[in-house]
Design a protein that fits this description.
Two copies of one chain form a homodimer.
Chain A lengths: L7 E6 L4 E6 L5 E7 L11 H11 L8 E4 L14 E2 L2 E2 H6 L2 E3 L6 E3 L3 E3 L6 E3 L2 H8 L5 E6 L4 E7 L2 E8 L1 H11 L17 H12 L4 H14 L4 H20 L8 E4 L2 H13 L4 E4 L1 H16 L9
Parallel strand pairs in A: 1-4, 4-8, 5-9, 11-14, 14-15
Antiparallel strand pairs in A: 1-2, 2-3, 6-13, 7-8, 9-10, 11-12, 12-13
């Protein structure tokens, strides 16, 4: 039996999860691993030890180089990779990668991007690697990356010209489980993109995003007065929050050319909402982008893929 | 020693607090009591017993009538006083009071007001009594009642034509103690109305209330990138939330004649914010209004104040 030596390992190491791939010289994955050993679960800051044990599980050579993105590069992570300042070319992210201390491997950690000038400071760490994975294209694009903290990014070619973080996913969780609305909303309801309550609330708040604070309580009132059920209330809340996000974002982000990074049900909710708001939407898949971005970064550090037979 | 028999007792009985007064025939308070025996702390639904024991503490006669507002009239309270539907004359509230079961006293519980028509349902229970306490005046007024759940009300003479509840106080508590922002915000900081961070954030969000979801995360980013301290972050968050509320509200509520119901620091923050937004503000004090409203209601039930010497 023969096996090709992997080109490199690639990791997205966040606060609560680790995703790890062995990549071929062409960037395709050989094997992958998902673990809940996020950074906060690493004892005694033994990041190198945890990484090695996971790479051993995947059968990686002991000297295989590793490229990492995510919170591993934060101040509380393995090694701080200070933010690159926006506006920034994505190539700047590669140039500011930091080597993490490791006895045997070449381990590089990618920095995030900070928006420090102006009155609306913001940060990203991990999403810059997805942007790298999008590949170069001329002209202006908007990238929307839904999740707990949804990032909207303006790209001009491969240059990040500005971005904004919306807490939409976190707000949904907070409102549906910790606010007065918890009595009315079923946080576990699976809202589908053709849900009429979702669509109506989304359309209304996209048109009048300033009315979000004036509408939240109406969910509670509708359950008291009109028998709005908890699953329906969940659809209304989801529509309000996504609608208000898009209504606010379209003032600052161009709508002609938008890449939506997201799969699954949440991606579909955003796709529907963005289309209603007049955005021309192209879909990309988050995990594929991270891997592509990490591979692109690896190629900048280790330009000649080594291929050998074991 | 001689004492005048009180005209009636008046209570604002909410979920977590009870305030109780003995009133003279002219409506002025003889004695008062504040207790944390809110409705949720009453065992075995013994509301009459708890009320009697508090009235005994105040030295009230055993047959003294009692007028009550607040959540005591909700479905989960002592006796349900179903909502009056807006638009509603405040006199309708009096006509729909409900007698609570009591072996010796005449106890009346005032209903709240519901806004059930249209697409923005809302409810109030307790605030209608403060509106009663405002007294009649011709013409249109806006009433703003800050708190955990801030009510904005449109009055035309003594008619409630519409109202909206903003969760502003609850949002501040949630964001500063349960969201990602908790790492950056000191929820206990005492923000003063001349605080420059408060004023700037408030002015910005009053002008662009739709940008609230796009600005929340900047508080976290400013603490990471610019050393924004937790007390300053608290002022920014407070300014953002109050500014966004006022920016949203002024689309629906007239600004020429506004009564702000609120004392203390929170009232001052609103007073400053409302003035910046161009509202002509007159101040009223919440507790005095509740008492006046309860007295006005009592007069409608028991029109001839009994005065006797004991």
């Amino acid at each position: 039996m023969s096996s090709t030596r992997p080109y490199c390992a690639a990791a997205d190491w966040g606060t609560s999860n680790l995703r790890l791939w062995l990549l071929r010289p062409d960037g395709s994955p050989i094997r992958e691993l998902r673990s809940e050993e996020g950074l906060t679960k690493v004892a005694d800051r033994n990041f190198a030890g945890v990484l090695d044990s996971k790479l051993l599980e995947l059968g990686a050579p002991e000297d295989l180089p590793v490229i990492i993105c995510g919170m591993a590069g934060s101040r509380q992570g393995w090694v701080e990779a200070p933010y690159v300042e926006a506006p920034a070319a994505l190539a700047d992210v590669l140039q500011h990668a930091i080597r993490a201390p490791h006895p045997a491997r070449d381990v590089r950690v990618l920095p995030g991007i900070a928006q420090n000038g102006g009155s609306h400071p913001d940060v990203m760490r991990g999403e810059e690697t997805q942007l790298l994975g999008l590949g170069e294209r001329a002209g202006e694009r908007t990238v929307c990356m839904p999740g707990t903290h949804c990032k909207w990014v303006s790209l001009d070619g491969s240059r990040v010209t500005g971005f904004t973080t919306f807490l939409t996913g976190e707000l949904f969780n907070l409102f549906s489980s910790a606010s007065l609305l918890r009595h009315s909303v079923d946080p576990a309801a699976r809202v589908m993109p053709d849900n009429a309550d979702f669509l109506q609330a989304c359309r209304e708040l996209t048109a009048e995003p300033d009315q979000l604070p004036a509408r939240l309580f109406s969910i509670r009132a509708a359950s008291l007065l009109q028998g709005l059920t908890p699953p329906r209330a969940s659809a209304v809340l989801s529509g309000m929050l996504i609608g208000a996000e898009i209504g606010a974002a379209r003032k600052s982000f161009q709508s002609a050319n938008l890449v939506l990074v997201g799969a699954g049900r949440l991606g579909q909710l955003y796709e529907t909402a963005l289309a209603m708001a007049g955005f021309a939407v192209e879909i990309a898949e988050a995990e594929g982008l991270v891997r592509s971005g990490l591979f692109a970064a690896a190629n900048s550090f280790w330009p000649s893929p080594v291929s050998s037979a074991a």
